[in-house]
């Protein structure tokens, strides 16, 4: 239990990094006419680019789609029947 505060800090750091990237790569590069336009554009960025194509350090610096294909191609580990 002593590591819980550290985990929380790491979680917050990842969230802060995401929002910084979102602002730098998308929001600050555009001039939105209204909130609806901004919401649509940011949603498209998150769904279309950030989640699917962007390299993720937690996935060996691969985009999620490629990482998932590589993991699916690997042979599953053998699990002992002895419990």
Topology at a glance:
Blueprint (H helix, E strand, L loop, with lengths): L3 H22 L9 H16 L13 H10 L10
Chain-averaged pLDDT: 84
Query: SSE order in H/E notation?
Result: HHH
Radius of gyration: 18 Å
Percent in strands: under 5%
Shape: extended
Strand count, sense and barrel status of the largest sheet are: none
Q: Ends: how far apart?
A: 27 Å
What is the share of helical residues?
55-70%
Number of strands: 0
The count of helical stretches stands at 3
The number of distinct structural domains comes to: 1
Low-confidence blocks of residues: none
Structure description:
The chain has 3 helices and no strands. It is extended, with a radius of gyration of 18 Å. It is mainly α and 83 residues long. It has one domain (4-73). It is 58% helix and 0% strand.
Summarize the structure.
By secondary structure, this protein is mostly helical. It has helices at 4-25, 35-50, 64-73. The mean pLDDT is 84.
List keywords for this structure.
3 helices
């Amino acid at each position: 239990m002593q590591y819980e505060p550290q985990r929380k800090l790491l979680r917050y750091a990842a969230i802060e990094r995401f929002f910084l990237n979102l602002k730098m790569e998308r929001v600050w590069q555009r001039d939105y006419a209204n909130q609806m336009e901004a919401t649509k554009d940011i949603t498209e960025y998150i769904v279309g680019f950030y989640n699917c194509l962007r390299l993720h350090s937690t996935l060996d610096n691969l985009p999620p789609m490629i990482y998932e294909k590589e993991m699916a191609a690997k042979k599953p580990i053998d699990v002992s029947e002895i419990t």
